[in-house]
Amino acid sequence: MTPEQNDVLTSVGAGTRMGELLRRYWFPIAASSELPAGSSKPVKVLGESLVLFRTTAGKLGLIAERCRHRGSSLRCGHIDDEGISCPYHGWKYDASGKCLSMPAEAVQKPALLKRATTAAYPAEELGGLVFAYLGPQPSPLLPRYDLFVMDNVIRDIGYAMIPCNWLQIMENSVDPTHVEWLHGHHMAEQRKKQQLPVPTHYARHHTRIGFDLFEYGIVKRRVLEGGSENDDDWKVGHPLIFPCTLRVGTQGQHRFQIRVPVDDTHTLHFWYSCYQPAEGKTAPPQESIPMYEVPWLDADGNFLTDFVDGGDIMAWVTQGPVAERSPEMLTSSDKGIVLYRQLLLDQADQVDSGRDPMGVIRCAQTNSRIDFSQEKNKFRSGASFLREAIEMSHVRYSPMKQQIIELLGNA
Ligand code: FES
Ligand SMILES: [Fe+2]
To answer: Most buried in the list 41, 190, 241, 409, measured by CB within 10 Å?
Structure first.
């Protein structure tokens, strides 16, 4: 791959090939629980600096962070039932980006107010997340993926800001063999040094990997040493939901790893999890879904690689702010990565020719609920894997950890 080809695949700004493709999809930008009425949050997505706010009347707004007047940030803006006012001279904008008032002007001239209209994007909520759509109108529907709408579960949302390009993170989702090394051998070594229990399921050798395109992305499959194609890991597999989500889990744990391109060198990573109670139990009602930060550096600035996700983050970040791809050596185990890169380019072609790329939903009936399959017996490990999947993953940082263990019952 040439450096120019790498630029095409990695850049997310408006007008770039991937920037235009990614703008056809909704991306989560915050948790609903972060945004009570009358509050705001600066957010950056696809290279655009924005401010997300909720009026005192409960309406969500997502507009350019920079004030149209003389450029101060609206992040500290005053919010009322109509919109957000710039802290500098009080120009007020509503959720559609319309300028409602310029307090220092004796007369509010409609033409002047109109000229001060700022960029605004749709923001919608589902399953405890706030999503943004930065693409052309009409907006597609916000996908009602199963985990966002299923009943009888408790949820939590982990997040981390990762200082690297989104593509190297997504490539990890079609890279099954890293699991045996990074999460098997490497993590075991790190944990041994700390006299922590070592993982028992991750280090098994891959004897076969496979990838299939489906309507919403790529299904990833593996056969592990001693196993067969009848195992869930091959027969069921789990999907990369195009463009930026991985679905993973086992038994009562179901998870989306959603990678939001913030700009070319930063990615906001969400771990959106649903925990299902053991057979016959009922999940307690949840008023709001907690959000927690997943750390990946220790106090001395060293990578935390004694848990699965910390190992992944170390691998992604050390590939560089934007991984150089010209010097890489792709081998047969990288066929999923080649498939994903090609899919990105193919879908960008779709956009160029005026069509919706894969997974864009405009039919309400299709969108009533979109289910994905995922292994129930991952690594043929049954229930014994559940505890490891909690203690050795980002879940160890969840404020709900104890509740999750109790809910899963047999963990
Ligand atoms: S800079 Fe925002 S009102 Fe003046
Ligand atoms: Fe991983």
So the answer is: 241
Band of residue 377 on the pLDDT scale cut at 50, 70, 90 = confident
Check which CATH number belongs to the domain holding 336 and give it.
3.90.380
Which residue did the predictor score with more confidence, 390 or 44? 44
Q: Which domain holds residue 105?
A: 31-133
For 278-282, 299-303, 385-389, 391-395, which range has the lowest pLDDT when averaged over its residues?
A: 385-389
Residues forming a β-bridge with 31: 129
Same domain membership, residue 399 and residue 273: yes
254 & 305 share domain: yes
| 4 belongs to a structural domain | no
pLDDT over threshold 60, residue 291: yes
pLDDT at 410 over 70: no
CA-closest residue to ligand 1 atom 3: 89
Q: Got the DSSP string for 309-342?
A: HHHHHHHHHHTTTTT--TT----GGGHHHHHHHH
Closest Cα partner for 147 from 233, 43, 258? 258
User: Near ion ligand 2, which residues have CB within 5 Å?
Assistant: 312
Ligand 1 centroid, distance to 9 Cα (angstroms): 37
The alpha carbon of 89 is separated from its chain's Cα centroid by a whole number of angstroms, namely 36
| Gap from CA of 161 to ligand 1 centroid (Å) | 29
Q: Please tell me whether residues 239 and 305 are part of one structural domain.
A: yes
> Do residues 77 and 51 touch, judged by C-beta distance below 8 A?
yes
69 lines ligand 1 (CB under 6 A): yes
What is the residue whose two structure tokens read 């014994």?
384
Q: Can you give the pTM of this predicted structure?
A: 0.96
Residue 377 lies in a domain: yes
CA 91 to ligand 1: nearest atom:
3
pLDDT tens track for 300-318: 999 999 999 999 999 999 9
CATH number at residue 38: 2.102.10.10
Q: Which atom of ligand 1 is nearest to the CA of 90?
A: 3
pLDDT, tens only, 213-244: 999 999 999 999 999 999 999 999 999 999 99
Q: Is 78 in the pocket of ligand 1 (CB under 6 A)?
A: no
Within a domain: 1: no
Q: Is 101's C-beta closer than 6 angstroms to any atom of ligand 1?
A: no
Q: Which atom of ligand 1 is nearest to the CA of 72?
A: 1
Would 6 be classed as within a structural domain? Answer: no
Task: Provide the domain count of the chain.
Answer: 2
